[in-house]
Amino acid sequence: KKYLESFAGMSALLFDVQLRPVTFFKGYSDLMSKMFSMSGDPISVVKGLILLTDHSQVIPLQSGLRASAEFQGGLAIDISGGMEFSLWYRESKTSVNNRSFKVLVESMEPDSLM
Predict the structure, then answer these.
(1) What sign results for the dihedral spanned by CA atoms 26, 32, 37, 38?
(2) DSSP state of 64
(3) CA-CA distance, 24 to 84, in Å (whole number)?
(4) pTM of the entire predicted model
């Protein structure tokens, strides 16, 4: 009888870029170890801040003054995954949680004539 090695993991794409895969467990002994020490908390796959835009521009106004404008935009990302096991029913449930927050900061102020 041939036994196949148990394996569970997750791989993610972020802005068409393949991120490193995360392995939940590999092999039966690792599965049992994780199952008995499991806290129920999801494993973080991607967590970070991304600067989307950083732009500054001087705009000439009709009055002859100039205005200085600055724009910055960012994205906070948290992608995590978790697994629940039932050895009695021989099943597992996986969950993937995506959380993100986008912010755009704009400022415009008049410049001097020079």
Answers:
(1) positive
(2) S
(3) 11
(4) 0.56
